[in-house]
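Illustration 12: Aromatic-ring-hydroxylating dioxygenase subunit beta.
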Amino acid sequence: MTDLHTFNDPRVLRAIALVWKEAELLDAKDYPAWEALYTDDAHYVIPIDPDTDDFDSSLNMVYDDKRMRRLRVERMMQGYAPSAVAAARTVRVISRFTVSDVSDDTVILRSAQILNAFKRDTFSTIGAELTHTIELGPDGSDRISLKVARLIDSEDAVSASGYLV
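Figure caption equivalent — predicted structure in token form:
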């Protein structure tokens, strides 16, 4: 669906800005603000099967609803969980946006993410295909109703990362 004119659409630009804001908050480890970007009925998913869209019936690395996102944020902030102790410093680059769908109240974006992390004297890089469903709200109160992060190595062993993709 994406053509060059699509990127002049203010709804699409708002959705892209929200995806970039999410990346900024995650890199800053501002997990409460990150959590607030999501609608109450939203899901944050990291599937193992790179081709599935049936997340309810598939095995996922992450399949968080509001309650599970809240618990994940608490764990990341407590400092007692292995993922929170000496949490990785990260920099995300999100680009190659394509628009799957756009309406007056929803934009579905696909993008590519490269996440660079540094933890315990070790650098790591994770690549992912992202899909964000953005609910456009009045006065720019846009929120994420679905985020799917398809890691390019999702079918291999993935160690606990200590950060959110």
